[in-house]
Amino acid sequence: MPPFVSVGMPIFNGARYAPAAIDSVLAQTFGDWELVICDNASTDDTESLCRSYAQRDPRIKYFRNPENLGAHPNYGLAFARSQGRYFKWAAHDDVLQPAYLETCLDALERTPDAVVCQTFLEYIDAEGRRVGIYDSKLRGADSAA
Questions:
Q1: Which pTM value belongs to this model?
Q2: Could you tell me which of 88, 79, 81, 78 has the C-alpha nearest to residue 117?
């Protein structure tokens, strides 16, 4: 059975922040997901780090490009390798709140005509301290339902 949601994580030289990002996916209250990591030929410890996570949890799929393809093609590969009904991008330095997937999926399932679900984003610094909130201001894009 394919997972209900795929989280695509394109990455290049992200070893410093990737553990927090991957751990935040592992900590989700909704568990029917896969994490598709596409490593764009990183030259730091990204490969060993990601392989270690993939060995510990079968929901984590790790792919490594033999050479750097550029950001756009690597994003495309992360999406193409995903199998879930829903898809979410996650950068290697994104930290998700534990109920993020559950909350977004609940909203999408309750609103069948919805094509996207986006929350406010909380900016954090390198130490994880809150520095601000981003509102996409997608006013008027709400579902009519």
A1: 0.89
A2: 88
